[in-house]
Amino acid sequence: MKTLTITRPDDWHIHVRNGAILKTVLPHTARQFARAIIMPNLKPPVCTVDQALLYRDEILEAVPQGADFTPLMTLYLTSSTTEAEIKKAAESQHIHAFKLYPAGATTHSDSGVSDIKAAYPLFAAMEKHQIPLLIHGEVTDEQCDIFDREKAFIGKYLTDIVEQFPGLRVVLEHVTTAEAVQFVEAANQNIAATITPQHLLYNRNALLVGGIRPHYYCLPIIKRERHRLALVAAATSGNPKFFLGTDSAPHLTNLKESSCGCAGCYSAHAALEMYAEVFEAADSLDKLEGFASFYGADFYRLPRNSSTITLQKTSWNVPSSYGENGILITPLKANESVNWKTQ
Ligand code: NCD
Ligand code: ZN
Prior knowledge:
Blueprint: E1 3-7, E2 11-14, H1 19-32, E3 35-38, H2 49-62, E4 70-76, H3 83-91, E5 95-100, H4 120-129, E6 133-135, H5 149-164, E7 170-172, H6 178-186, E8 191-195, H7 197-201, H8 204-208, H9 225-235, E9 242-244, H10 253-256, H11 271-281, H12 288-299, E10 308-317, E11 337-342
Helix pairs in contact: 3-4
């Protein structure tokens, strides 16, 4: 049987929620990934170091016995974030970044930043204290078409942020367009991007052809095929600016299968396996380890993992849902097969 052994990977962008959902989803991530950057968009959001440390404890309690998993915490940037909190975060061994959500851009972003220029003093403090800024890069202008919102964000905000703060490490999260790939490639070495499995596997036909399929709905929304191809080329290029971030974002099935369904794809159950499918289809399995296990750690200035994980080329069926006792989460590729399996 064909197998592939790589250094144990990390997930540089994930939503694990809290309470019962956390207990359902965390074992999936802890099984494959040694570390994960935990998004702070809870309700209410995780805005301070003290809140993040409490959330970290809750996550650690959900790690299955025997699993080796470390949550890397982030703070939600708001207009009331202070320089003192930024300094405190940078000095904490458990806090690794701030997350900027433009207000209204996505799930639980209503506490986000509505005037990005007004946050420049905070970006300056992050640059000074050497803590990365993670960006949900979409404009929220009502007039802007949803498929153009990432590209518009780059022109309207990101280009200037990168110019004004050349020493600030920035991750443009879950890139979805050829324009984002080009921007990151051309920018200085402090600018990187994460790429999700859904944006590598699917174009917008998956969401809309033959019926509306809410489990492919996430933000930024999946785009047309030429963008997917640009993302696959970036992920498999060996360019260390692009690394793995699943953006696995669990929502209860009934909240997605609704007349106003929420944004987010659940992928933690088979994340590495889905990336392996993409890299194999692009004849680039030799590039998977850098993307999944090296470049993110290097960007965050953390040691690379020393243990390994083995994938087997064998097909298995994804169940229709995960969870029990009222928790029902429909995963990506529900009732479909996946061609790789981690041991
Ligand atoms: C995320 C969520 O549900 O928290 N949803 C999503 O569609 N990706 C938020 C986010 O990362 O935008
Ligand atoms: Zn996300």
